Amino acid sequence: xxxxxxxxxxxxxxxxxxxxxxxxxxxxxxxxxxxxxxxxxxxxxxxxxxxxxxxxxxxxxxxxxxxxxxxxxxxxxxxxxxxxxxxxxxxxxxxxxxxxxxxxxxxxxxxxxxxxxxxxxxxxxxxxxxxxxxxxxxxxxxxxxxxxxxxxxxxxxxxxxxxxxxxxxxxxxxxxxxxxxxxxxxxxxxxxxxxxxxxxxxxxxxxxxxxxxxxxxxxxxxxxxxxxxxxxxxxxxxxxxxxxxxxxxxxxxxxxxxxxxxxxxxxxxxxxxxxxxxxxxxxxxxxxxxxxxxxxxxxxxxxxxxxxxxxxxxxxxxxxxxxxxxxxxxxxxxxxxxxxxxxxxxxxxxxxxxxxxxxxxxxxxxxxxxxxxxxxxxxxxxxxxxxxxxxxxxxxxxxxxxxxxxxxxxxxxxxxxxxxxxxxxxxxxxxxxxxxxxxxxxxxxxxxxxxxxxxxxxxxxxxxxxxxxxxxxxxxxxxxxxxxxxxxxxxxxxxxxxxxxxxxxxxxxxxxxxxxxxxxxxxxxxxxxxxxxxxxxxxx
Length: 540
Fold this sequence. Notes:
Layout: E1 25-31, H1 36-68, H2 71-85, H3 92-107, H4 112-118, H5 120-123, H6 132-151, E2 168-172, E3 182-185, E4 189-194, E5 197-202, H7 210-216, E6 220-228, E7 235-243, E8 265-270, E9 274-278, E10 283-287, H8 296-313, H9 336-368, E11 373-377, H10 381-385, H11 407-413, H12 415-429, E12 433-437, H13 439-442, E13 447-448, E14 453-454, E15 463-467, E16 477-481, H14 482-491, E17 493-494, E18 499-500, H15 502-524
Helix pairs in contact: 1-6, 2-3, 4-6, 8-9, 9-12
């Protein structure tokens, strides 16, 4: 069984109450029982949606390129580009340039309304498969979101959808809402009717699941059919967008809510592979998504097999030296073996993503039991993923240093995903939420609250040596793990102005040391730990 919940709502609204503003929504995802002939029908409709998307994208790109040739548009872009280079994007000149550009794009049909209007010229060629509801409110809206992101400077280019890239389609749940093709929820199944061709997809509903019964009693606003790779065949799900807030989940044994919410501040120090958190109840240093294994070797083997199969079935695409021919139309023949390997690669990648998301969700649920406000340093994750630009030589070895940074670690562990999940859950529960503090203002990794000083440390230094004032020897020091101490400092952050609560640090420090020592003892007893933790296994 697979389900999740998501909503945006105001704090204090009772669970399940209908909101007149129609702002409260939640999502329930249920698996579908799909037979082979039904899957063939779904794949045909998904492929038709892909072709409509690409045709519309090609049409809109031509309009954009034509607009980019005009003098007025180029002048506006010049103002915006110079503002971004000089870091003055909030200036009145830049804001005025954005307004003029929006007016210009709207006049030329490059807007959400224009996309919805243009898509009508393309879906009519697939009238038996895709109608106006899916074409207008799903395909056109999705493409406009990509265009809007590109125009705002958050994307370098807009990509066409390759074969099989469309993974979900959405439709209204009320018949006749927008006409055309409709995907409708019918209690025990999802109905997708087009040109009197009715496709009934039964839902897998657990009759003993109280949570599902409560959620399915809400009014269904939208239905989305989702396609995911499986081990031997595709898996299909129905994602129901429901009215109201999500129902609470209760334990069958105790009758109490499964996930309780704590009170107080929690400091989080997150890295490419690990996360350290500190609260009044608990401190811990954990490996992010420790069940996610490194599949790079397995991926490379499958990709080599795919390349060999592709070269064997399409020999006319390659020169005698093995390079791809240029200036000729390439063939795209795929053998049955190629399709099986492609499906296997997609499955292992999807499985890793599901495990990673599940572990991040479980960790976020646990942190919510410790507090209701979370402090974390704002990180530039894309910058950490990029290779180093400068070439340098190591003083110890005399060799060139590796330019690789944390790309693979970030891809496997996805720390940014964990923060986004925690933010969403805080919004769901109406909590103060996640506060991202400025790294350069606090410098939590360099601060020492006992001496009230800052000391810059190298990345390899994983321990802080804190002075002990017991009256016997002033030279005594206490080893404190660097990440745990940073989390402790972040826990005592004052947002406005961005600083540390020094008095609270002094009071809570002895309790933190006790919990810190217990956590280090736990880590030392483990058979293996992440190298960046700096904790070695105890031999005692």
